[in-house]
Amino acid sequence: MTFYQAAVVALLASTVNNAVNAEEDCTSIVDLACGTEGFSTLCSVLTDVAPALDPDVVSSLKTVFAPTDDAFAAVKFDLVTEEALLDILGYHLSTFELTGECGSLIEMADGKDTRTLCNKDKEPVFQKGWANSRAVMPQFDPTAGIAVCGDATVYVIDSVLIPKDYFVDEEGEVVEDNVQEVIDAPDPNDGKDYFKELLIAKGTVTEGSNTCANTNPQFPNINCLGEDGTVDVGPQAAANVTKGYVGGMEVDIVPITKSYYQAGLCPVNVHWHLGSEHFSAGEFDCEDPKKCGPYHAADDAAHDDDGHTDDAGEGDSRRQLAGDARKGYQCNYYDEDDSKFTAPYDWQFCDKTMEVGQTYEIHWPHSSAGACGTPNQYQTPFYDGVFCNLPLDVFQTLSAQDIASNVGVQAQVFTIVNDEAYYYPNLFGGMIVDGDFGADMAIYTGSTTGTSRDNEVCSQYAPITWQVDRKCHMISASSFDKMCADMMAQRDDMTDDLYAHGAREVTADIITADNQQTRGRGLRLRKNNKN
C-alpha cells in the first residue's frame, strides 16, 4: 500500500470515528465517501447511481471496495451506459465477507467474482477483477478495512475493478465487449504476435548440430514371463505408489533417494500421459464420475491403443488420430459447476486435444549421460537424451545398479484448470517442489512406460529410478502451454511430445519391485515393509 493510500485509510477511519462520537450513530457508505477528501468521484457515482441498486442488497452489504479519485481518473466511462455503470458499481459491492486468503473468490453484487491475490511474499495485497490487467492489479490492504452502517467493511483500492464483459481500450475508455469489434484501431504489430513468436524462436545457437540424434538403442519390448512362467524382465513401472504398498518382485537394487540434481543427473525430456499411470489411493484413484473429469462417449470404451508404437516407444496416443488413447487414473478435483474445470482454454502451443478438467501425469526423464547444460539437453524421443553420451558398447558393461543410479524419472500428476491463480512458469524444468508439491514422494526402481507395454509385454529399459509425487495437484492450462512453448524452442524437434501419450496399466505385483521407499521434505527415508 502506498503512503497516499495509507493516509486515505487513516482519514476515512477518522471520519467514521468523528461521526460516531458526535452523533452516536453509524456512518453510511455515501456519507463516508462524500465526507472524505480523495473520494469525490465515488461520492458522485454513489449519489447518482446508488439509488438504482437493489435495497435488499444495499442493506445486507458486507464488503465494499472504494476506488480513490486517482483510480477513477485512470479510466473513462464516456462510452458506457448508465446500466453498465451500475453493473460496474455493483462489482465493488458484496454481501459476503472478504476472507483475505490467497486465491479466494468473492461474489459481488452484480453476480460476478473478484479474486484476492498475493504478492511474492504470499501477502494478500491485490483484488483482481476479471478484466483488470495482471500487469498492474488493483491493490488494497485487507487489514485496513473500515466499518460502516449495516455491518459492512470498506476497503480503499487504487484501481477501479473491471468485470467480465468489459475491457479498457488504449485510450483508457471502459468499453463493453460487444462494442469491441467496431473500434477501428491500427495494429502496430501488423497482425503478428511477436511475443508468441519470441517464445518459440530458434536462434543461431539452437540451430546447431544435434549430437544426441539417433542414440536410442531401440531395445524391443519382450514378454514379461519366460517360457517357464517365471518373471524374465527387470522391475516395471508404473506402480501403485500408495504409502505402504510393497511390490512382489524381490530386488537388491537401490534407487536414487536424493534429488537427481544432487546425484549428477539432468532432465533430458518432458512428456505426459492421459490420466495417471501410477495409482495413489485418495489422490489419483477417482471412482465418482462427477469428480473424475470431463466425460466423453469414447471413455465408455476400452482405451487400448491401435498397436502402433511411436518413436518414443510410448504408443500412438494422438486422440485426434487414433481416437482411443488409453486413459489412466483420474484425480478427484473435477466439479462441473466450477468454471475453472469447464471453461475452454485457447491452446497456442500444446496440441489442441489437451483439455481443461482432465488429469495428466507429467514425466521428466533424467540421465547422467545427457548433454547436460548444452542446447542438446532436451530430446524427443527421450531415449536419445538418456543415451546421448553413453555408447551401446559401454552401456552393455554396466550393472543393473549402475543403470538405476544414473537414469531416473520424476513424475507428478495434475488436473488442468482454466484459472491463472494456479499458474507456474517452469514446468519444463522439472517437477514442482514447494509446499505440498513434492512433499510426499514414492521412490522405487521400475522401467519406461507407455501403452506399448502392459502386464504381459514389458520394457527392457530397466531398472531405472522413479521418484513420484503421491499427491495430485491443480495447475493452470497456461502453465502447460508455456511448457509446450519452451519445448518448441529447443534445438531438437519435440513436436511428438506436445500431446498426451496413452497410459500404461498399473503394474502387477509380480513385476513390481519391492524396494519402494518414502521421502518427505525434512523426513528420513523409510522403506515400505511387507506385512
UniProtKB/TrEMBL annotation:
InterPro entries: Delta_CA, FAS1_dom_sf, FAS1_domain. It holds the Pfam family CA_like. Residues 26-161 form the FAS1 domain. Keywords: Signal. It comes from the Eukaryota. Residues 297-321 are annotated as: Disordered. Residues 1-22 form the signal peptide. This is Delta carbonic anhydrase. The lineage of its organism: Eukaryota, Sar, Stramenopiles, Ochrophyta, Bacillariophyta.
